Amino acid sequence: MQNLFLTKKVIFMIIKKIEITNIRSYKDKTTIELPIGRILFQGDIGSGKSTILSSIEFALFGLGDIDANHLLRIGEIKGSVLLEFESSGKTYQVFRSLSRKGNKISQEEGFLYENGIKNSYSVGELKSRILDIIGINEKTQTKTTSTIYRFAIYTPQEMMKNVLTSSNEKRVEILRRAFGIEEYSTAKKNAEKFFLWIRTVTRIKKFMVNDLSTYKLDLKKIRDTNESLREEIDYFIDSVEQINVNIQTNLRHIHEMREKKERMLRVESMILHLQSTIGKNLQLKDEMKLELGRLSQELHDISQSERILTDLEPKYQDFIKKRDDLLKVTEKASEYDKLLLDKVKLEGDISIEHDKLNSTIQRLDLDITDLSSELGKCNEEIKNLDRLLKEELVLKNKTSNSNSLQMDLDRTSDVLSNTKSQIISIKNEISEQKSELDTVLQLKQDAICPYCKQKLNQQHIMELENKFLLNRDILKDKITDRENKIKNIQEEKDEILDKIRKAECNKSDLQKVQIQIAKLLVVEKTITQLENKINEKISDKKSLQDKLQGNHLADKIKRLDEIDSKLDMLSSYKTNYDNLSKIVNDYQKMDLERKYMEHFNMIKSKQRVSEGIRTKETSLLQLNTEIISLSKKLAESKSICQDIEIITMKLKELETDKVSFDNELMKRKEGLAIRRTDQDNNTKQIEIISNKISELEGKIDKIIFTDQIGIWLDLYFIPSLEQIESQVLVSVKEEFNKLFQKWFYLLIEVGDIDVEIDEFFTPLVNQNGYFLEVESLSGGEKTSIALAYRLALNEIIRRMIMLDDNLLILDEPTDGFSKEQLIQIKHVLEELSASQVIVVSHEKELEGFVETIFRVVKESEQSQVELVI
Q1: What is the largest CA-CA distance in the chain?
Q2: What span, in angstroms and rounded, lies between the C-alpha atoms of 744 and 740?
C-alpha cells in the first residue's frame, strides 16, 4: 500500500483569520481569529455556522460549484471574504469579492498578499496560485472547487450523503477521482481511442496502396492525351496567323472607303447648310414684305391723327386752363370742408355732454332713494340690540359653573367604577374559595390536602367548610356595603347630570343670542356705511347741477361761433371749386387728354416710320441677290454626292467581312487557350500522380510498423492498465475498510454490530450474522456510519497524497447523536492528530471537548460570532 502514495510531502495550511462582509446572513464586516487546536462553532440550526465554512472555501478556490445568488447577501451590491492563513512558515492573505450588476452576480478579480506585497490575479489565476502555495497538484477547473480539499479537509454533509446514497458505479467513480487514481481509467480510454485511430489509419493506408496500379494507368493516359494536344496547338497557331493577314488587308480597304465617304458626307452637310440658309433667307424676305406693308399702313394712320388733333386742340386748351384754376381754389375749399366737419362734431359734443349730465343726476336720485329705504330697514332691526345684550349677560351667569359640574361627574363616575370592580373581585374570591373547597371534598379519606399538606379526615373537612362559610358571610357583607354605596353615588351622579343638561340648554340659548347680537352689530356698521354713501351721492348731485347751470360749455359755444364766421368768408371759394370740378370732370369723362396725347405721339413718329420704309426696301434688294448666289452653290454640291450610295454599300460589305474574320480569330484563339490550359492541367496532374505514386511506394513499410503498434496496445497495454487499476483499488479498499472500522468502533461501543466496506465502497452492517440496511438503523447509528466513512475518507486521501495532518473541518458530525453517543466524540477528537480541527455543530455538549468555542447567533436576519472561551 505504501507504494501507492506520493513521495512528495504536501504542506497544506493553518487558518489564522477570516473577515466576512455581506455573505449570506453576515452583513457588517465580521472578523474571526482562529487559534491552533480544537475549535467549535456552536449555534442553532440556521444561525450561519456553515456560512463560515463556505466563506473559507470561497476565499481559497472561488465560487466553484457554489451559486453566487446563494452566497451574496440579499439586497447588497458587494460582498467579500478575506482569509489569512499560514503555509510552509509563511503568512498569506487572500481576498475575493462578489458584485451585483442588475440581476447578475459575478466574481471580481481577487488579490493575494505575499511577503507583504499585494498581487492581483484573475479568478482562475488566483485559484492556481493558492493550490501551488498549499502544495496540491491537481488540474484547475473554473466551475469546480479543489477535489482534494473537499475529500481530505472539508466534506460538506450534502456531498457526503451523495457519496453514500449514489449507485455503486457512481460512488466508485466519485472515489476514483478523490483517490487520484482516475488517471488509470483516463489512460485506458486514451489508449483505446489511439488503437481505434491506428486501425482506421492503417485501413485507409492499405486502401490507398491498393490504388497504386490505378494511379500508374492514369499517368500513361494523361501523357498520351498531352501529346495529342501538342499537335492541335500547332495547327491553331498557323490558323491564327493566316486570319491576322486577312484582317489587315480588310482594314486597309475599309480605311480607303471611309475617307471617300467622309468627303461626300462633308459635301452633304454643306448642301444641308445651303438649303437651310436659302430657306431662312426666303422666310426673311417674306417677313420684310409684311413689315414694309405695316409701316405703310402706320404712315397712313399718322395722316389721320393730324386731322383729328386739329379738331381737339381748342377743347384741350380749355381743359388745361380749367384744371389749373381748380388747383388754385382747392386749398380754400378743403379748409371750408374741414371747418364744416369741426362744426358738426362740436355741436354733437355739446348735445351729448348736456344729456350725459342730466342722465347722471337722475341716476343719483334713484341711488339716494334706494339707500334711504335700506337705511330705514336697518334702523328697525337695531332696536332689539340692547334687549339681547342684557339677555346674554343673564345666560352667561347661569352657565358659569358647567366646568365644576363636569369635574363632579368625572369624580362620581370613577368612584362608581372602582366600587363595581371591588364587588366583582369579592365575588371572584368567593368562587375561588368555593372551587378550592370542592376540590378537597372530591378527595378520598386520608388523602393529602393540596393546600396544607395534611392528611384529610372528617374533622379537617368540617373545619375547611366552616372557614369557607365564615369568609363567605364576611365577603357578602362587604358586597352589601358597596352596593349601598353604589346606590348613593348613582343618585348623586343623576343630580349632577340633570344640572349639566340644564347648563347645556342655557349654553345653547346663549349661542343663539350671541349669533343674533353679532348680526345686529354688522347691521349697526351697515347703517354708518349707508349714511356715508347717501351724503356722498347728495354731494355728487349738487356738483353736477352746478355744472349744468354754470359756464361749463361756454368755451365750446364760443368756438362754434368762430367756425360759423370763417365758413361765411370761404363760401365763395367753395362755390367756384364745385363749378370748376364739374367742368373738369366732364372733360375727363370724354377721355380728352388721353385722346389728344395719343394722336400727338403718333404724329411725332412720322419721320421714324418714313426712314424705316426706305431701309426695308434697300435690305429686300440685297436679300434677293444673296438667294440667287446660294442656289448656284447648291446645284454644284448635289452633282458631287451622286455616288455616295455605291460607296456606302461597299463599306458595309467590307465591315461584314471584318466581323467574320474577328469571330473566326476569336474562336481559334479560344480553342488554342483551351488546349493550352488542358495541357498545363495535364502537366500538373502528371506531377501530382507521380508524387502520389512515390509517396504510396514509401508508405508500404510504415503500414506494417503502425499495425504492430495497434496489436501491442490491444493485447498488452490496455489489459495491463485494467489490472493495475483493479489492484490499486483493491489495496485502497482494504486500507479504507480498516480506517472505517477503526473510527466506527470509536463512535459505537463494542457490541453485536460489525461493519465493513464491499468492493463498491458501500458500508455493510452485520448484526448477529445478519446483514442490515443502513436506513434501518437508528439515527445515531446512521450518523456514526457517515462520520466514520467521512473520517476514513479524509485520512486515506491524506496518506495517499502525503498531506500534512494540520487542518481538518467537520460539519455537523453529531447530527442525530444521543447525549450518551456525544461522549464518544471526545475519543474521536482526541484520536485526531491534526494541529487545527474546526467543528461546526448545534450541540452544546461538544463544548467540553474543545479548547476554543465560538457562539454563532442570528438576530434580525443578521449573524454574529462571539468568542466564548
Answers
A1: 184
A2: 6
Contacts of 120 (CB under 8 A, 6+ apart): 109, 110, 111
Measure the CA–CA gap between 428 and 430, rounded to whole angstroms.
Answer: 5
Report, as an integer, the average pLDDT of 721-735.
78
| Lowest model confidence (mean pLDDT) among 139-148, 459-468, 844-853 | 139-148
Other beta carbons within 10 Å of 67:
9
Q: What is the C-alpha separation between 661 and 444, in angstroms, rounded?
A: 150
d(CA 670, CA 666): 6
Q: Are 42 and 813 in contact (CB under 8 A)?
A: no
pLDDT of residue 31: 93
Question: Which cell numbers hold the place of 52?
Answer: 463560515
SS3 at position 547:
helix
Residue tagged 445478519 (cell numbers): 770
> Average pLDDT in the 604-616 region?
77
Instruction: List the single range of 5-19, 141-155, 185-199, 725-739 with lowest mean pLDDT.
Output: 5-19
SS3 at position 86: strand
Question: Nearest Cα to 774, choosing from 761, 763, 784?
Answer: 763
Cα–Cα distance measured from residue 396 to residue 506, given in angstroms and rounded to the nearest whole number: 8
Query: What's the DSSP call for residue 109?
Result: P
Report the C-alpha gap between 46 and 209 in whole angstroms.
73
Choose among 340, 323, 328: nearest CA to 570: 340
Q: 241 by DSSP, 3-state: which?
A: helix
User: Of 825, 808, 629, 822, which Cα lies nearest the Cα of 39?
Assistant: 808
* Amino acid identity for residue 217 in this structure: L
Q: How far is CA 677 from CA 315, 667, 670, 684, in A?
A: 112, 15, 10, 11
Global confidence as pTM: 0.43
C-alpha to C-alpha distance for 791 and 783, rounded to whole angstroms: 12
CA–CA dist 638, 649 (Å, integer): 19
Contact criterion met (CB below 8 Å) for 493 and 407: no
Please tell me the least confidently modeled range out of 160-174, 191-205, 544-558: 544-558
State whether residue 750 is helix, strand or coil. coil
Task: Tell me the three state secondary structure of residue 63.
Answer: coil
Q: Are 360 and 544 in contact (CB under 8 A)?
A: yes
The grid coordinates listed for 679 are 495541357
Q: Which of 466, 440, 442, 463 is nearest to 453 (CA)?
A: 440
Coil vs helix vs strand at 550: coil
Cβ–Cβ < 8 Å for 6, 68:
no
For residues 504, 508, 514 and 518, what is the CA-based torsion angle, rounded to 10 degrees?
A: 140
Fill in the DSSP letter of residue 840.
E
Nearest to 516 by CA among 353, 634, 354, 391: 391
Q: How many CB atoms lie within 10 A of CB 163?
A: 19
Alpha carbon distance 380, 385 (integer Å): 11
Please answer whether residues 811 and 53 qualify as being in contact, where contact means their C-beta atoms are separated by less than 8 angstroms: yes
Residue 113 · residue 105 · CB < 8 Å: no
Helix extents (H) in 641-778 = 644-712, 718-747
Contacts 24+ apart (CB under 8 A), 251-256: 251/658, 253/654, 254/651, 254/654, 254/655, 254/658
Q: Does the pLDDT value for residue 1 go beyond 60?
A: no
Give pLDDT, residue 803: 67
Sequence-separated (6 or more) residues with CB below 8 Å from residue 14: 36, 85, 86, 87, 806, 807, 835, 836
- Whole-number average pLDDT of the chain: 79
Closest CA to 779 of 825, 819, 815, 827: 815
DSSP-derived secondary structure for 404-432? HHHHHHHHHHHHHHHHHHHHHHHHHHHHH
Q: What is the CA angle 792-794-799, rounded to 5?
A: 95
* Residues 527 and 375 sit within 8 Å (Cβ to Cβ): yes
What does 139-178 look like in DSSP terms, one character per residue?
A: ---TTS--HHHHHHTB--HHHHHHHHHS-HHHHHHHHHHH
* pLDDT score recorded for residue 680: 83
pLDDT digits (tens, 9 = 90+) for 498-529: 888 887 887 887 788 878 878 878 877 888 88
